[in-house]
């Protein structure tokens, strides 16, 4: 798609597509009125952008797909939303997600599950319908179904990359701290990032260039000097003689051996192998690498994310935040814990409650050393693994010297499988299976790295039927986001 301003009629058109398709896909939970007076000469003029419903907007509700915030309208806009609007984007609506971002299938939502546009049907849930992936499933499905040009999601442990992979669109998780989290409802602050979906990389780049700016309102926003250091170091790889198609010439791509676990479906491996072969024949140097702590990353992630969530979600007590539930008979109003408990019991869903309990336990005096502290140690080992293979140092946290002969980027499958059937996912609600789906995305989250999922073009499967989408991930050192996007262009 050419990067020109979209006309008013295109914006109306996207709303018509939403009206036609949303009843079956359930990607949007609220749609805005088309703005009439967008200046045509701004960087994002007329681009329709959907926003995940855990990012605050003053003009539409922000529910986080939770009963707790069902009627909540934020008094302010998130920094990302302000930037988009200031630059001419049309915020077309808010998208469905897992409650507070917790989930991998977008089935834990007060608005109901999102259906993968790949196989959505109008007549209730059929047995072949697929999950869109989560937690930003609404944003991924909205882009896949042509309801908008781009969408914002959040990615704490894979919530942009996993649904992108399942829905066959591009999903980008920028390096931690590059995009402001001000106005993004916290799940696990040390991991939360704002990510992007689109059908092509130029659109991702166009939006990313605007939103990746320092914001004094977010205490974890990366300082300008550090951004520039990482940027210029990584861009040395893309010297001026290299044309866009020859960016692969001499590029060192690492293939982490631990990213092909036994749980991986066989249908994933072959297409990824083909892509790696193609990159090699186009001039890239393919290097097998090892990230030995990978197998511990998932457990570490779920302990840390739940611990942070239990603390963050304490604010929803019905008094300060959240929908207050009138205490029933027998509740002693002088005991605030009993009053809070009414609200929290009624308004949080099962998955959120489970995370709060798990996280509170991990932070308790008895369990702290064995769980929280151990998980933090593993997180450091995961970071060390990455720092030992990348040619560029991590300018954000560690600042070690460069690794001689290190790789420029890593490439691996985005997920261990294609989108599961929605009917099966409903049964999996309480099982560990949905956690395992994040096994390939959480390491980059723990280390705060840039990670992009690009759909693999594989139109038919062995039986000749239309194949389900598969994603391949390009992961780069902290702050090398533009390099990752450039490599993504060559892969896409
Ligand atoms: N599925 C993971 C979780 O439930 C990741 C979620 C996310 O990235 N927001 O925690």
TrEMBL record:
Pfam family, one: Amidase
Location in the cell: Mitochondrion
Reactions catalysed according to its record: L-glutamyl-tRNA(Gln) + L-glutamine + ATP + H2O = L-glutaminyl-tRNA(Gln) + L-glutamate + ADP + phosphate + H(+)
An annotated GO BP: glutaminyl-tRNAGln biosynthesis via transamidation
Enzyme superclass (EC): ligase
Annotated GO CC locations: glutamyl-tRNA(Gln) amidotransferase complex; mitochondrion
Subcellular location, principal: mitochondrion
Highest taxon above the source species: Eukaryota
Region annotation (Disordered) ranges: 116-135
GO molecular function: ATP binding; glutaminyl-tRNA synthase (glutamine-hydrolyzing) activity
Enzyme Commission number(s) from the entry: 6.3.5.7
Function: Allows the formation of correctly charged Gln-tRNA(Gln) through the transamidation of misacylated Glu-tRNA(Gln) in the mitochondria. The reaction takes place in the presence of glutamine and ATP through an activated gamma-phospho-Glu-tRNA(Gln).
Assembly and oligomerization: Subunit of the heterotrimeric GatCAB amidotransferase (AdT) complex, composed of A, B and C subunits.
HAMAP family xrefs: GatA
Entry similarity comment: Belongs to the amidase family. GatA subfamily.
Protein name: Glutamyl-tRNA(Gln) amidotransferase subunit A, mitochondrial
Organism: Agrocybe pediades
């Amino acid at each position: 798609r050419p990067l020109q301003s979209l006309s008013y009629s295109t914006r109306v058109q996207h709303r018509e597509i939403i009206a036609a398709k949303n009843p079956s896909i359930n990607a949007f939970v609220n749609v805005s009125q088309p703005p009439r007076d967008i200046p045509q000469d701004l960087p994002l003029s007329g681009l329709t952008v959907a926003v995940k419903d855990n990012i605050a907007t003053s003009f539409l509700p922000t529910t986080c797909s939770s009963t707790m915030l069902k009627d909540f309208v934020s008094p302010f806009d998130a920094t990302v939303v302000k930037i988009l609007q200031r630059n001419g984007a049309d915020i077309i609506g808010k998208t469905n997600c897992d409650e507070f971002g917790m989930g991998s299938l977008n089935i834990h939502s007060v608005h109901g599950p999102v259906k993968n546009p790949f196989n959505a049907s109008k007549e209730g849930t059929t047995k072949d319908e697929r999950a869109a992936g989560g937690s930003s499933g609404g944003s991924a499905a909205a882009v896949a179904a042509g309801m908008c040009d781009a969408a914002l999601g959040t990615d704490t442990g894979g919530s942009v990359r996993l649904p992108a992979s399942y829905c066959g669109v591009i999903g980008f998780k920028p390096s931690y701290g590059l995009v402001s989290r001000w106005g993004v409802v916290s799940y696990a602050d040390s991991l939360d990032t704002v990510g992007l979906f689109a059908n092509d990389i130029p659109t991702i780049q166009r939006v990313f260039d605007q939103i990746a700016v320092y914001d004094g309102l977010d205490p974890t926003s990366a300082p300008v000097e550090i951004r520039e250091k990482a940027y210029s170091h990584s861009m040395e790889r893309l010297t001026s003689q290299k044309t866009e198609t020859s960016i692969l010439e001499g590029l060192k791509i690492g293939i982490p051996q631990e990213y092909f676990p036994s749980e991986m479906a066989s249908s994933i491996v072959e297409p990824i192998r083909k892509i790696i072969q193609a990159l090699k024949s186009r001039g890239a140097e393919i290097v097998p690498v090892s990230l030995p702590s990978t197998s511990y990353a998932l457990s570490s992630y779920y302990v840390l994310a739940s611990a942070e969530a239990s603390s963050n979600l304490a604010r929803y007590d019905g008094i300060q935040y959240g929908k207050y539930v009138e205490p029933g008979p027998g509740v002693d109003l002088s005991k605030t814990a009993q009053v809070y408990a009414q609200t929290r019991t009624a308004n949080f869903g099962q998955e959120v409650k489970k995370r709060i309990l798990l996280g509170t336990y991990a932070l308790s005096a008895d369990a702290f050393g064995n769980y929280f502290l151990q998980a933090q140690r593993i997180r450091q080992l995961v970071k060390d693994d990455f720092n030992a293979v990348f040619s560029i140092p991590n300018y954000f946290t560690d600042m070690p010297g460069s690794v001689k002969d290190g790789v420029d980027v890593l490439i691996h499958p985005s997920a261990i499988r294609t989108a599961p059937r929605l009917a099966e996912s409903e049964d999996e609600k309480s099982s560990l299976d949905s956690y395992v789906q994040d096994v390939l995305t959480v390491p980059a989250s723990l280390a705060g790295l840039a990670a992009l999922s690009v759909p693999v073009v594989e139109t038919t499967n062995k039986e000749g039927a239309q194949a389900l989408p598969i994603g391949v991930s390009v992961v780069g050192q902290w702050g090398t986001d533009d390099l990752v996007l450039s490599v993504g262009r060559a892969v896409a």
